[in-house]
Design goal:
Layout (H helix, E strand, L loop, with lengths): L2 H16 L6 H8 L3 H7 L4 H25 L4 H19 L8 H7 L4 H24 L4 H25 L3 H16 L1
Helix pairs in contact: 1-2, 1-4, 4-5, 4-7, 5-9, 7-8, 8-9
Length: 186
């Protein structure tokens, strides 16, 4: 793996596990076994530029995963349940959901850095668009599809955070049980 990708992958994992502010550059450098010079060669503006690059990479990975799941299922309900099931299995196997949740980064940094807020917003917009598009194909109005997509995003993101804090998959299982009712009630 080249140095830039190593820095991005390692920093992404550390930021998700510990939060942006808790991870120092020295910790990233040590985990990658690279020098400060190597980091600044790839990220001249330092840690925040690395974070933004990590968020863009997460955006691509999460969007690709969700699009793949949603393309395999005809209904939003089945696609969503499949996605939640994937998250549950990942949590049960690894004890975490790194690679899918970035809410801790949002809560920590979005008000402090406009470029970070924008990178986070782009990911949420992509997720909303995937959900909304699927709902539109099922005949929901633009207004209903947008509202439901927002509720789905908030519910799933919130459930992932609760899973991490409770060390349990119960919040995702609850969302999986209740979300289908929302999809047929409107």
């Amino acid at each position: 793996m080249d140095t830039k990708l190593l820095l991005i992958d390692t920093a992404t994992m550390l930021f998700q596990q510990k939060g942006y502010k808790s991870v120092g550059l020295n910790e990233i450098l040590k985990a990658c076994n690279v020098t400060k010079g190597a980091l600044y060669h790839h990220f001249p503006n330092g840690k925040e530029e690395l974070l933004i690059t990590c968020l863009h990479r997460l955006n691509e990975a999460i969007t690709t995963d969700i699009e793949a799941i949603f393309s395999r299922h005809q209904s939003t309900k089945n696609a969503t349940l499949s996605m939640i099931d994937t998250l549950i299995h990942k949590f049960e196997k690894e004890g975490t959901i790194t690679g899918y949740t970035f809410s801790s980064i949002v809560s920590e940094m979005a008000t402090m850095s406009e470029p970070v807020r924008k990178a986070c917003s782009e990911l949420y917009e992509n997720i909303l668009h995937i959900y909304c598009s699927k709902l539109l194909t099922e005949g929901f109005s633009n207004e209903s599809a947008s509202s439901i997509a927002l509720m789905m995003t908030a519910s799933i993101e919130g459930a992932m955070m609760l899973c991490l804090t409770q060390k349990s998959t119960d919040p995702l299982k609850t969302v999986a049980k209740l979300l289908p009712n929302l999809l047929k009630s409107i």
